[in-house]
Structures are given as C-alpha cells and as structure tokens.
Amino acid sequence: MLAGKTERRARGDLARVLVVDDEADIRELLDLTLARMGISTDLAASVAEARKFLEQQRYQLCLTDMRLPDGEGLEIVRLIGERYGETPVAVITAFGSTQNAVAALKAGAFDYLAKPVALEQLRSLIKSALSLPRRRGGSEGEESGGQAAQLIGRSAAMEQVREMIDKLARSQAPIYISGESGTGKELAARLIHDRSARRAAPFVPVNCGAIPENLMESEFFGYRKGAFTGADSDREGFFQAAQGGTLFLDEIADLPLLMQVKLLRAIQEKRVRKVGSTTEEAIDVRIISATHHLLMDCVDARTFRQDLYYRVNVIELKMPPLRERNEDIEPLVDALLLRICGEHAPRLEPQALAALKAYSFPGNVRELENILERATALCNEHVVVLADLQLAPVMAASDSTGREGETLDDYINRVEKLAILEALNKTNFNRTAAARLLGVTFRSLRYRVERLGIEE
C-alpha cells in the first residue's frame, strides 16, 4: 500500500493529498476525482498506514474517514495538528453524523464531508484547502488581506485574539464571536475571512436584528419570480451572494425561532431553497456569527435553539472589552486620530490622555472613536484638552462615587460571581447541587463558571 502511488511522485510539483479510508471503493472514487484535478494521491486504509505516509511525505491536504479499523479519524486530525500544522485535514463522516463532524472541527479539522460523498462539494473543499495561505509570522503592521493593521494593540488579550484568528483562518468550522458591543466582532470576522482560503470570494455581513421578520426567508435564501406579490424577477439571497465565501450573521440572537429552524437546516444540509422554488441548490458558505448577548442565556430562556447553538458555536472567539486592555488605549488613540483627521491630526494633552486611560468605556472601541470624533471637532489650536472629551464623570474609573467606576456589566458579573461562589461553597463545590440551589441548569452554571473564571 505504501508504494501505491510512487509513480506519481515523478510528476513534479503537483499538489499531493493523503486519502485515508478503509473502503476500497471510496479510496478509488477519491483517487479518480483528485487525478482528474491534476492532483497526486497516496492511499491508506488505516491509522497506522496514514502515520507512515505522514512520516515520509508532506501533503497539501489529508482526507480521512472517521471510522477506521485500528482507530478513529480524530487521531489523524490531532496528529496532523500537533506535528504537521501546515497540512489541512478534512474528515468524511457517515450521513447524519453531525456530532462526529462537530467533534472533528473542534479538534482542528479544516472541514468535513458526509457520505455519500458529493463530488461537487468534494472538489470545492479540495480547491479551498489547496488555496490556503501559508502561516504568517510577521508583526501587527504586516499586511494580511489589507486589514491586519486595523487590529490594534499589543496587550496579552489582543495577542491571544490575533493568534486565534490565524488558527481559525485555516479552518472551515463555524465560528461564534462573543463580546460586548463595540469590541470589533465584525472586524475579527473580516480578518478571518481575509486570511482564509475564501479570501477571493465575498464576505457578506448581515445584521439579523435589522431585517423584518416577514422578509427574512426571502432575504436569506432568495426568491423566484412570482413567489409573492412584488416578486417581479428572480433574486439571490444572502447565502447565494456569499457563495464560496463567508456569511457573517451579526446579532444572530435576534433571529426569530422559525427562522432559526430554517437556518439550522441550511447549515446542516449545505443546501437552500428559494422562496417559490421546488428544488434546492447547493451552497458553499462559511458561517461566522456574533452577538452581544450571552448566547447560552438565550438558550436557557428558550429564545435561541439549543441545536442551532451547537452548530454555530463550534469554535468561540472572545473579543475582550477595552477596559481589560488599558495599555492599548494610547496606540488606539493614535490610529483613530489618524483615521479621522489624516496626517494633520491634533495632539492630546497629557491630562486628556490620562482621562481616557482612566475611563471604563462601556461602548468599547466604538465609543472611543465617537469621543475622539467629537473632541477633534471641538478642540482649538490643534490640541485636544480634557474638556473637549466630554467624558461622563459617572463612568470614570477614578470616580469615587457609586460602584467605584464599575460599568453595569462589571457590577452584574461581580454580583453573579459572588452568588455562584456562595452556592458552590454551600454544596462543597458540587455543581449539580449548586445549580439546583441557584435555580439554573447545570449547563448554564458550567458556562457561567467558565466565563467568570471561577476555580475550585
């Protein structure tokens, strides 16, 4: 088996793919399809054979079945992630085995295919994997899809975000971006798209809370001429507009339950049906979603479907609030002033800059930008003084009144943390009993404990 494709290695610099499947007909199908695309393949029927191939050769892609005679495809996913990080790996799952697919994506798989393998989806996956950019080293100012310099800050929190974005860009997994309003969730989504294999295709942002409920289905999936009054011609929806690229669903928690059902089916089946059409069409779209709500709380409140939650939240990217990265305020101020005023930006007097560093920014970076826009309009002699900022004194971190400058979110989190710790102490850190005492589900308590950083 190991010598199975050595004759193709003499064909020069062709891309090479490792196929791992214990079914001979599947291996043959994949081999034939790849050969017609001008791609060399090596075929393995087990985890052990795959390991030997990986030790001998570097691959541009690995396609592996989930169930193998001597193990699982997840072993190969983890092995490649640990030792051969430049090689994307896609898994082939049994029809309807969405749990396996999600597990593989969380383990670092690039994407997945369901059996029976659809050749159109297979070719699309292969093209995406082979067009992945090389991993970047570089600095913050280095170009990356033309937008890297917009992710400003050298704090530990922002370094973690940048590192996570680089990892997520090399995957096709659905991503959920969490964070408060104004933390840059859409910017993070754009950066993931711009660094991914989909960078040449469209990035389509959608504000789910801004679409009238009666228009949602036609806006998302499109419609056929005559489907309803006013449908004078065929129209593409968001999914068709994002074909081959990324669909960013901002404020996804605002979707009504009926639309959540239809969105779930589109994500699972990778097919959509236009309003008024009798047939479905295949779609190749990566889903990135975001909301300023705590999505698990929405699940507990039954305003967001649990099954959809697990489909869109395969991997979570957390955007830190500005108050948790105070050291980034000065470089942010410099960059935002340059964006607002160009080369003739005014300077901030030391007192004004100190006040910004002491401010809690409930509106995060978006609020900082608004403050600076106002200040540059009000300032005299090309100098921004403290009065020009017009900061609300009640929100200043140095304010000695109220809650010592805490934002409402900070205050709520502190009270919530104290209540959870009290319940955990009363139950000797038995989380099931603590959840019952607090009147929440075990899953919700576990999520809150992780979010608040509570340790035993």
TrEMBL record:
One of the Pfam families matching this protein, by short name: AAA_lid_14
SUPFAM superfamilies, A to Z: CheY-like, Homeodomain-like, P-loop containing nucleoside triphosphate hydrolases
Response regulatory domain location: 16-130
Domain Sigma-54 factor interaction: 151-377
Protein's UniProt keywords contain Chaperone: no
InterPro entries: AAA+_ATPase, AAA_lid_NorR, CheY-like_superfamily, Homeodomain-like_sf, HTH_Fis, P-loop_NTPase, Sig_transdc_resp-reg_receiver, Sigma_54_int
Single GO biological process annotation from the record: regulation of DNA-templated transcription
Residues recorded with modification 4-aspartylphosphate: 65
Coiled coil: none
Top-level taxon: Bacteria
Protein name: Sigma-54-dependent Fis family transcriptional regulator
